[in-house]
Amino acid sequence: MSYQEKCFFRELNMTKFIDTHTHLNFKDFEKDRFSIIENCLLNQILMINVGTTFNNSKTAVLIAEKYAYGVYASLGIHPLNVEKEEFDFKELLESKKVVAIGETGLDYFYENFNKEKQKKYFLKHIELAEKIDLPLIVHSRKAFEDTYEILKDKNVKGVLHCFTGNLNYLKRFLDLGFYIGFNGIIFKMNLDKIIENTPKDRILIETDCPYLTPPLFYEERNNPLGVKFVMDKINEIKGEDISKEVYCNSLKLFKI
Ligand SMILES: [Zn+2]
């Protein structure tokens, strides 16, 4: 944590949060993203807008550039978009607000997925992250074995976002040094055992908005304010308030 961060903490004595995986860069938020962001910042919620195509990665950067503090971007081509997207982030990498590469990874959920192309793009993201020393935001759905096989001998750190794997995979990804990202899916699937077994210095919180709205959140379309519900549930499972540790984990991984 930087000196300024520490001062901020002390002065406000207020817990801060980082939604480490949000999509206010999506078209869903075209009309009201800036009022949402300002409301989040007033509520001490910082955020990383995560790209899934070249265009929305660019939007994530443009949004982040508008704010001096608290709003960051990640550049990536989602595994379900590899068929129609080129991998070329040169111009966007000039922004200092880019704190991660992704989302990238493997998604074998739909029948017609192209395994080879997904792997090829995943490797390109990993190579870039290694080269410029940024963490990787990894999406893995029904593909934990292949995700692990690809990551295990790479010199890269990052987060397994929206983690839904079993205890065996949890252990393996933790051993690689990865962080584990939890979002509103913890209200849909029972991931209590996974949360119990993830050390508090490896937990990150996220919304993946506009998706996965926590059931008690008054908004239908999720936004970064929903991240507090995820944190509350994790605290409940852990039996202690680990919000500050989780906040610091994000600062550390994304070098914010
Ligand atoms: Zn996402």
Portion of residues within helices: 25-40%
User: Could you say which overall geometry the principal axes of the C-alpha atoms support?
Assistant: globular
Q: Any idea how many domains?
A: 1
Radius of gyration based on Cα positions: 17 Å
The top level CATH class name: Alpha Beta
Q: What is the H/E order?
A: HEHEHEEHEHEHEHEHH
Written account of the structure:
The protein has helices at about 5-10, 35-40, 55-65, 115-130, 145-150, 165-175, 190-195, 225-240, 245-255; strands at about 15-20, 45-50, 70-75, 100-105, 135-140, 160, 180, 205. It has about 260 residues and is an alpha/beta fold. It is globular. The mean pLDDT is about 95.
Topology (elements, then pairings):
Blueprint: H1 3-12, E1 17-22, H2 33-42, E2 45-50, H3 54-65, E3 71-75, E4 98-107, H4 115-132, E5 136-141, H5 144-151, E6 158-161, H6 167-175, E7 179-182, H7 192-196, E8 203-205, H8 227-238, H9 243-253
Parallel strand pairs: 1-2, 2-3, 3-4, 4-5, 5-6, 6-7, 7-8
Bound molecules: zinc ion (ZN).
Zinc ion binds next to loops.
Provide a quick synopsis of the model.
Helices cover 37% and strands 17% of the residues.
Question: Top keywords for this entry?
Answer:
256 residues, alpha/beta, TIM Barrel, 8-stranded parallel beta sheet, globular, binds zinc ion
